[in-house]
């Protein structure tokens, strides 16, 4: 397998980054703006104050560590292709909207997608390279 020097990190990887062996990650990492949106929702998705504070810390850390890749016109086009591919494989619905938007950002930027939840990206065919870590 060729050495991967660049890649887009899924939200699951950003959340667990301190528990992941860095040897399994590319040298140069990026995140999608959608990941920041998911992280921004995190503190509001729990009633546990300590967990909310941890999630806010993670958001602030991610926002200061990366300049996220935008969801732009090329990503929108890639999203359409990914949506069609997923639908053709029987994965319909908007339940995994953020996952498809992140995958579309990776595809539009020619980057493999590193994730802890590869099942979230099943049915995308060869449209985007998904690397499970």
Structure description:
With 133 residues, this protein is α/β, with parallel strands linked by helices. It has five helices and four strands. It is globular. The model has no long low-confidence stretch (mean pLDDT 93).
Radius of gyration: 15 Å
- Mean pLDDT across residues: 93
Total helix count? 5
Shape: globular
Euclidean distance between termini CA atoms: 15 Å
Number of strands: 4
- By helix and strand content, what is the structural category? alpha/beta
Oligomeric state as shown: single chain
Helix content: 40-55%
Strand content: 5-15%
Widest sheet: strand ordering: 2-1-3-4
In this structure, how is the largest beta sheet organized?
A: 4 strands, parallel
Q: Can you write the helix and strand succession as a string?
A: EHEHHHHEE
The parts where pLDDT drops under 50 for at least 5 residues are none
Summary tags:
133 residues, alpha/beta, four-stranded parallel β-sheet, 4 strands, 45% helix
Give the SSE layout.
Elements: E1 6-9, H1 11-16, E2 28-30, H2 33-41, H3 49-65, H4 73-88, H5 97-108, E3 113-115, E4 130-132
Parallel strand pairs: 1-2, 1-3, 3-4
Summary, kept brief:
By secondary structure, the protein is an alpha/beta fold.
């Amino acid at each position: 397998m060729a050495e991967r020097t660049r890649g887009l990190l899924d939200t699951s990887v950003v959340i667990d980054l301190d528990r992941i062996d860095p040897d399994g990650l590319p040298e140069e990492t990026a995140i999608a703006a959608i990941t920041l949106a998911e992280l921004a929702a995190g503190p509001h998705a729990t009633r546990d104050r300590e967990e909310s504070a941890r999630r806010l810390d993670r958001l602030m850390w991610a926002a200061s560590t990366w300049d996220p890749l935008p969801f732009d016109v090329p990503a929108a086009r890639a999203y359409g292709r990914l949506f069609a591919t997923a639908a053709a494989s029987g994965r319909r619905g908007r339940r995994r909207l953020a996952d498809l938007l992140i995958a579309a950002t990776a595809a539009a930027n020619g980057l493999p997608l590193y994730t802890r939840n590869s099942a979230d990206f099943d049915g995308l065919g060869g449209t985007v390279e998904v690397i499970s870590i």
